[in-house]
Amino acid sequence: ISIFFTSFSSFKDIIRNYTINVENEVKKIEIEAEAQASTTIVSGAGEKELKTGINVYKIITTAENGDIETYIVNINREKNSNANLKILEVEEGEISPEFNKEELNYRIEVNPYIKKLNIRAEAEEETSKVSIKGNNNFSIGENLIEIEVEAEKGNKKTYTIVVTKEGSDNN
């Protein structure tokens, strides 16, 4: 049995359970399995999508006489540690500076009738969570919005937008 770049060189047909750990960046693997006898049928091999955590795959061999052997391949995909945003956009105008995932602080000026922003904030990784705080009931002057991205491993990154609301609340 081999998995994309790793071969179980210590494979023994009496051992039925194998485990491998992979980085979070590995999203697919290829399991290859070859029978010792040409008349044995092997199923369960091929390309596999990985979810975060333990992925269990069965490789089943069926001998010509009907004997069945099952081999379990456990692939542990590490949790995501990426707390970056991929997209940060504001419908009501352009943030400054232009979005860059490494830049954490932004500014925008809005008209006095704006009470909240329509923000599009997407994490680079689907499994990271994005939360937005402070995006409501803006006062005249400066208002702070915090956009927090939390990766599966628990590490966090906070982006901020200082919203300057111009004019008077009476407009």
Q: Would you spell out the secondary-structure blueprint of this structure?
A:
Elements lengths: L1 E2 L2 E2 L9 E6 L5 E5 L8 E3 L2 E4 L3 E10 L5 E10 L7 E6 L14 E6 L8 E5 L5 E5 L7 E10 L5 E10 L6
Parallel strand pairs: 3-8, 10-14
Antiparallel strand pairs: 1-2, 1-4, 4-6, 5-7, 7-8, 9-11, 12-13, 13-14
Quaternary structure state of the chains depicted: single chain
> Which word captures the global form?
rod-shaped
Residue stretches low in confidence (pLDDT < 50, at least 5 long) are none
Sheet having the most strands: 4 strands, antiparallel
* Number of helices in the DSSP assignment: 0
Protein structure class: mainly beta
Rounded to the nearest angstrom, the radius of gyration is 26 Å
Strand content: over 45%
Q: What spatial order of strands do you see in the largest sheet?
A: 2-1-4-6
Q: What is the mean pLDDT?
A: 90
Topology pattern, helix = H, strand = E: EEEEEEEEEEEEEE
The residue fraction in helices comes out at under 10%
Q: What distance lies between the first and last C-alpha atoms, to the nearest angstrom?
A: 72 Å
Number of strands: 14
Structure characterization notes:
The structure is a single chain. The radius of gyration is 26 Å and the shape is rod-shaped. The termini are far apart. Strand 12 and strand 13 form a beta hairpin. It is 0% helix and 49% strand. Strands 2-1-4-6 form a four-stranded antiparallel sheet, with no helix packed on it. A four-stranded mixed sheet has the order 3-8-7-5, with no helix packed on it. The model has no long low-confidence stretch (mean pLDDT 90). It contains no helices and 14 strands. With 171 residues, the chain is mostly beta strands.
